[in-house]
Amino acid sequence: MTKHGPDLNLLFAALSDETRRAIVSRLARGPASVGELAASHDMALPSFMGHIARLEKAGLIETAKKGRVRYCRLAVGGIKPLEHWLTEQHAIWERRLDRFDDYVENLAKERSDET
User: Fold this and answer.
1) From CA 96, how far away is CA 1, in angstroms rounded?
2) Cα 80 to Cα 50: distance, rounded to the nearest angstrom
3) Nearest one of 23, 11, 27 to 52, comparing CA atoms
4) How many helices (H) and strands (E) are present in the chain, helices listed first?
5) For domain 6-114, which CATH number applies: 2.60.120.260, 3.30.470.20, 1.10.10.10, 3.40.50.880?
6) What are the domain boundaries of the chain?
7) What is the dihedral sign for C-alpha 24, 30, 35, 36?
8) H/E element holding 19?
9) Nearest alpha-carbon partner for 85 in 18, 6, 21, 22
10) 3-class SS letters over 80-111
């Protein structure tokens, strides 16, 4: 199994919060200002900026300031480490379930041969 770095931990931590998942979902439709993103969340701007900082630290979003407005967009490839890990887990579980299925079939065959 591949050893994953702390980036994966940052990704899972960033996506563990409903507000941050909502921000990522909104940014999937296109870039937005922090003000636009914050408008749909009932919290103080400093708290909201903490969510933005967490997503940026995890590499999921990028921000840029133009004048007095900070804009956010999804980071290209930001979700790739998570996608890679999930693909690995899927393959591991598929192999485990295939082996279990083989075991159950062999057990059933042995029992039917005994009778």
Assistant:
1) 14
2) 23
3) 23
4) 5, 3
5) 1.10.10.10
6) 6-114
7) negative
8) helix 18-27
9) 6
10) HHHHHHHHHHHHHHHHHHHHHHHHHHHHHHHH
Amino acid at 5: G
Bridge partners of residue 20, in order along the sequence: none
How far apart are the C-alpha atoms of 58 and 52, rounded to whole Å? 10
Q: pTM to 2 decimals?
A: 0.76
| pLDDT tens, N- to C-terminus, the chain (115 residues) | 456 666 899 999 999 999 999 999 999 999 999 999 999 999 999 999 999 999 999 999 999 999 999 999 999 988 898 888 999 999 999 999 989 988 898 888 888 887 6
Tokens 């909201």 identify what position?
48
Q: How many CA atoms lie within 13 A of 103 on its CB side?
A: 6
d(CA 55, CA 57): 6
Q: Hunting for tokens 């690995």 — which residue is that?
A: 88
